[in-house]
Amino acid sequence: MSNLHDFLVKHAKFPFPQPDEDRSIDATDISLIEVGLLEREWKPNHAVRDNTLVQKLCSTLENILGDTFLAADAENQLLARFLPRIQRSARGREDLDWRDNPSERTSQKLLDKGVLEAIADCLWEYGAYDFLAAAENVADRGSSKVDYVVQVDGEDKALVEAKSPSVMKKVGESLPPRGVELTWARGQSLVRRILAKAALYLGLRRMEWLFLTCHNYWIVCRLVRDDDHPFLAYSPIISIEDSSVPFQALLGAILSIVKTVSVEPSEFSPDMELDTIVEEQDEGPLPEDDIDNGTAYSVSSEEEMSGLMVTSSSQNSPESFQVWMHLRPFSDNMLALPQCATNGKRRLWLTRFVGSGSTGNVWQCRFDDSVDLFIAKVVEVLRPADADNRKRLHNEFDVYLTLEKAYQSGQLRDHIAPRCYGAFEGDGVDVLILDLCDGVLNEWGELSDPEK
Ligand SMILES: Nc1ncnc2c1ncn2[C@@H]1O[C@H](COP(=O)(O)OP(=O)(O)OP(=O)(O)O)[C@@H](O)[C@H]1O
């Protein structure tokens, strides 16, 4: 018999596969549509370094585990999850997966078979808790996927986001020593983008803890909810090499939520001194050019006449808090918006997330001062692969244009597709506006083959 906490401090260690830190660095941008969904108390304005964040989690774990004892057979089972036994099969063959870690994909594999399996066993030994690391989780109404939502007895407790060793190294090196103001814009430097995304993942799911990791290195993020000054706290980067601290921190965060034990607070004061990060050179127009998050903006009157603004923010949130994106019509857009669009300020409210297709995200929407519902198909270009989605949306629009010509010339009399009311583009975003085919598309699967 041994004390579970002492056992973990001594044994919860994993191999340190050789990380390839020189690969190209690539991180998906933040979705401004999703930023619009954040509620005030979950939308931090600052990210602040907390040098003792990891120790706070380790102390919480120690308090929670207390004098829990581990029976000898459980101890033997758990030992197989950690160094040195995890590196070899029962018959002594070396597991080559632990040799090197070149990429994000490998990081995920190592997390799956290493830390996450061990957390599952520890939670079972400690309190017969069921643990699941649900992969590729999409938040309610959102579209970005966090790599893992860790669940205990079916409830979400913390997030884990896998990164490549090269991204972790770069972010670890450039973590601001004190803190920064968080900016909700696209095209930011890697460290700003990663911190904003961590806050976005947590805020959308209304959760406190997110662990960024490539298995070798870890950064802990904590979203501190507050009506006036919500903020994100981040730890310095820590290594798993010959250290059980990352494992203790993750288990501490999970158990703090399971057992509702508060972790010593992270501090932030609105007048504290912050760091400035020099942004990397960005090509093209500044992303802010098309975004309005309450600050003054100017659009030419011609743009105002033909353009559109779009948001996923709630109409109940204060105007200054709403996140609007300015859109202009595609150059070949000859389709007219519905009559109701011209009643108000040419603003489109995305009111309900319908689903994701192979092209983009589909939202139910309505125009200012109107109750009529429409569909907006939205493509945001957040990573290189999204350029293909944008192309698909353009092709889809070409089909609607061809159909419109056929209707107008009398070649086609019946509408054979939802009516399209135009295509618009902004900085990194394209939007198609369509009729809402309520019921019909949703019941597509129930139609017989001839009906389809
Ligand atoms: N005009 C519409 N009215 C109502 N729901 C729609 C409309 N267009 C799309 N949807 C819904 O939005 C979701 C995604 O649709 P979308 O057409 O983008 O993708 P898809 O059906 O997977 O096809 P594709 O491969 O063409 O992208 C589906 O659930 C679909 O029923």
UniProtKB/TrEMBL annotation:
GO molecular function (one): protein kinase activity
Every Protein kinase domain range: 348-452
Keyword Transferase listed: no
PROSITE patterns given in the database record: PROTEIN_KINASE_ATP, PROTEIN_KINASE_DOM
Keywords per UniProt: ATP-binding, Nucleotide-binding
Signal peptide: none
Binding site for ATP: 377
InterPro entries: Kinase-like_dom_sf, Prot_kinase_dom, Protein_kinase_ATP_BS
Protein name in the entry: Protein kinase domain-containing protein
